[in-house]
Design goal:
Blueprint: H1 6-20, H2 31-38, H3 41-48
């Protein structure tokens, strides 16, 4: 599943680092904090590995 925005990709990268033990889990904020618990390492890797070219910074939430 590819990331829809740069912000989602950055959050997945931070969550992946915490899941692997490279960063402290307590340093996570917002979406990355919930991602680390709810997603597998493979899912986080797939989100974080999405190419950034052409991605918007943020995607507005659906109403």
């Amino acid at each position: 599943m590819p990331a829809k925005s740069k912000a989602q990709q950055k959050a997945a990268g931070a969550a992946l680092a915490a899941k692997r033990g490279d960063a402290p889990k307590g340093s996570l904020k917002g979406a990355s904090r919930s991602m680390v618990d709810s997603m597998s390492e493979r899912e986080l890797h797939d989100l974080a590995a999405t190419p950034r070219k052409g991605k918007p910074e943020h995607v507005p939430p659906k109403k």
